[in-house]
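So, is this right?
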Amino acid sequence: MFQNENLLDYIVCSRYESLKNPEKHQKLVLERLVSQYSKTRYGQTHNASQIRDLADFRHAFPVVNYNALNPYFTEVIKGEYSAILSEPVLCWVMTGGVYWQGKGSSSNPKPLFNKSLFVRRSVGKLCFEKAEF
């Protein structure tokens, strides 16, 4: 994979590159997301493999709240990760919650994957190593 230095450069440089041509990079992100969604039952139900652009995506995937996804997460907890996720869950973590329209905050469980854990550990370690106390 990446060495710590290269990983940070990759993350930071890709962000700067995306600012040079945001439309191109948004299309790339959409393609990557749709590719991952098409591996899931949720994505197959919404015909993710047929999505070609943002309009298709918006039509196929209506906006839903977290509660609408709970049945899928229940399946994931039972071991059926492909119900809505494209890779197995390493563990579940609680979010810090979101303050929304004066309604306070609520925490929700969030899946953590091997890839995201690797990135968090590597970047966190690198930032800590470079910190001046």
In short: Residues 4-130 form one domain. The longest helix spans residues 4-20. The CA atoms of residues 4 and 121 lie 9 Å apart. The chain has one domain: 4-130.
